[in-house]
Amino acid sequence: MEKETNSKNFIERIIDEDLAAGTYTKVVTRFPPEPNGYLHIGHAKSILLNYGLAQEYHGDFHLRFDDTNPMKENNEFVESIVKDVEWLGAKYVGGVRFASNYFDQMYEIAIKYIKKGVAYVDDLSAEEIHAYRGTLTEPGKESPYRNRSVEENLDLFERMKNGEFEDGSKTLRAKIDMASPNINMRDPILYRVARMTHHNTGDKWCIYPMYDFAHPIEDAIEGVTHSICTLEFEDHRPLYNWVVEQAEFPNPPKQIEFAKMYLTNVITGKRYIKRLVDQGIVDGWDDPRLVTIAALRRRGFTPESIRNFMEAAGVSKSNSSVDYAMLEHFVRDDLKPKAPRLMAVLDPIKLVIDNYPEGQVEYLDAPLNMENPELGNKKVPFSREVWIERDDFMEEPPKKYRRFFVGNEVRLMNAYFVKCTGFEKDEDGKVTVVHGTYDPETKSGTGFTGRKVKGTIHWVDCGHAVPATVRLYENLVDEEKGVYNEDGSVNLNPNSLTILNPCYVEETIKNYTNGDRFQFVRSGYYNLDPKDSKDDALVFNRIVSLKSSFKLPKK
């Protein structure tokens, strides 16, 4: 169903106008990452926005790497980004594209610029170029090499390409306006000499195009109609337009800027994440405490939840922050009807049911998800000894405590009523075993309508329990202090990771595999860590807790 006009965002309204005017006949969008790091949650907004627009207007969506700076780029980042885009469900046409595939065309366009007299080879150093550039209040100064002849510029540029000059000794610059109020238009650099091995083109080139020159040309070559980027590129738009106009593309793309996605109290800057990785503070770019897309995937977030979150967050021209709890809300909302509900004991203490027959095991019926009967049922083993949570027993309970204490009766979930009769302690005074008796007439699912109990606790059968390690996460950032210190370092939360071991999970877990997601009853949503979990050493990540104080605003 197409959106009503009054519900469309400003980008959609621009596209509508362009199509109505015949400026473009088919919408083509793209996601153009630089392969110099892993993508984060902010990039997910750009991916889904561009892909969503292509879908809405029955157009094409491209995935293209802006790989013009081989010093910071490598294939690891390329592969991770492709995986992220595909995981989010963004289907790109024409295969994976690279700016470097167009280097020959870019070189020919640079030649065209020189012949038109709008580009020249400059001998100024980087420091001199910066000094000549001027300020926001003062115009720049023209390079003494600005008025070289076309013939001299063509010769020097070819020699740059042939490797005759030292790195950084010469640049190709656009000849625009050194007095422009927009500093980006003050003869920007188009090419620099740099002997670097490129991940895609190897050692073919020793000159590389600059991003502001290459990017609009890539868009134009691919027939992109709407170049959608974030607000920091707004001042670059006149240069974007100049590049494609001087290259004489017949139907150039239109650049449109939107506000970035900012989440409260999270780290998204690539250089900060890289520093955390390099210093070993986190377990790689996919550490579940980060908000890289790889980290969210590893932690157990679903692509559906991220898509729903982005749709709710919307698109605007004004920068704003979104509460991280809103993202968690959409994860819970997505997992609640689809995640199998298993019993897991994270801080175990043994319960011995003294009057249950020794050596007997029975299998009890239990639903996999009470809110979604389509998931079916499971069989849960039950015997004389089970694990329960340590905080489900208290030696001296406060008022209104409804779980296990001597003399109190509770229901073991999907099983029987059990009455606490006593407990054992070790030499340090720590309770090690709880004792109880069960009532065989109270079996769950048999229609028992006798006495009532106020507490229900979960459990895992000792003889069939699967041992596991469970990781609990808090925000990587100390939220009270903010994300960054004045010196640029990160305010880290020392309690961002808690590792629990041993924990015990019901044997139903054997039916699942790494990456699968579950609800551990009364605890939260978890997944089997796809990186560290092994058949004989299960590792779970807590995705989110069961409840949150976050509420979506009413429409």
TrEMBL record:
Source domain of life: Bacteria
Entry similarity comment: Belongs to the class-I aminoacyl-tRNA synthetase family.
Catalytic reaction annotation: tRNA(Gln) + L-glutamine + ATP = L-glutaminyl-tRNA(Gln) + AMP + diphosphate
Glutamyl/glutaminyl-tRNA synthetase class Ib catalytic domain mapped to chain residues: 26-336
Keywords: Aminoacyl-tRNA synthetase, ATP-binding, Cytoplasm, Ligase, Nucleotide-binding, Protein biosynthesis
Gene3D superfamilies for this protein: Glutamyl-trna Synthetase, Domain 2, Glutamyl-tRNA Synthetase, Domain 3, HUPs, Ribosomal Protein L25, Chain P
GO MF terms, alphabetically ordered: ATP binding; glutamine-tRNA ligase activity
Classification of source organism: Bacteria, Bacillati, Bacillota, Erysipelotrichia, Erysipelotrichales
Record's GO cellular component terms: cytosol
Annotated Glutamyl/glutaminyl-tRNA synthetase class Ib anti-codon binding domain residues: 339-439
Full protein name: Glutamine--tRNA ligase
Originating species: Absicoccus porci
GO BP: any one term: glutaminyl-tRNA aminoacylation
Span of domain tRNA synthetases class I (E and Q) anti-codon binding: 456-529
InterPro entries according to UniProt: aa-tRNA-synth_I_CS (IPR001412), Gln-tRNA-synth (IPR004514), Gln/Glu-tRNA_Ligase (IPR050132), Glu/Gln-tRNA-synth (IPR000924), Glu/Gln-tRNA-synth_Ib_cat-dom (IPR020058), Glu/Gln-tRNA-synth_Ib_codon-bd (IPR020059), Glu_tRNA_lig_a-bdl (IPR020061), Rbsml_bL25/Gln-tRNA_synth_N (IPR020056)
EC number from the UniProt entry: 6.1.1.18
Aminoacyl-tRNA synthetase found in the keyword field: yes
Keyword hit for 4Fe-4S: no
